[in-house]
Amino acid sequence: MIKKTKNSRPLISVITVCYNAKDYIEQCMQSVIKQDYGNYEYVIIDGGSTDGTKETIGKYKENLSYWHSKSDRGLAHAFNEGVLHSKGIWLIFLNSDDYFLEEGTLKKISDELLNNDSADVIFGQVNIVSREKTPHYIGGPYGGEFNWNDFLYRDTIPHQAAFTNRRLFEQDGLFDENFNIALDYEHYLRKGPALRATYVSQTISCMRDGGLSQESIGLSIREQHLARITNEVMPSFRAYRIYVWVLFRAFAGRYAKKFLKFAK
User: Fold this and answer.
1) pLDDT at residue 11 in the model
2) What's the CATH number for 12-211?
3) pTM for the complete prediction?
């Protein structure tokens, strides 16, 4: 069963990219399927899972507008497949270990989407939860007003809470497959300071602590640096200075936590 559309509200495409995610995928899917908003579609791009993920997705296939399970070239390619197989005006990427906070999430955000059609991206807040199958709250909500200069230092738009206007993909192209972590950051940077990002004080979703960006913090910081260089959003000397500072702060903080834990 594909969700019926209502012309009074914008069509929202919820895209879930996953691979061997049997521990989390059902919670993610149920948080989408239970939405009480009448004008959304659900697209799932599975990278050819072998752990039972595919079978779980199949249980809910009548609730999906599109899904497939086959190998891909990486995360950016999978995200692009989601874009190409969706039709919504607004797209949100809710990965398998994320889930919407409540059943009314899409309905609550729909007024903002309807009234801010000129925005490139509209985003809210996220809660951080643990990685157990039944997670517990760790912190949040996190998120705040958009500032371009702050965005140059770090990605302040969480994709789990970001609704991207399809127009941005039509104007600036799809995600760059050279990026595997900072692909959404790079995509927004292409617009430069003209990026129209609107913040909404609403908690959209929960994201599990850890994940690829935190497990590979060095690679994540390096990709963000490459995104700045690639899009020439600042002089190269400033970009390198930011890269060194962010890298130092990240690893200094990590070692400080280990030391304090050991000292106890």
Assistant:
1) 98
2) 3.90.550.10
3) 0.91
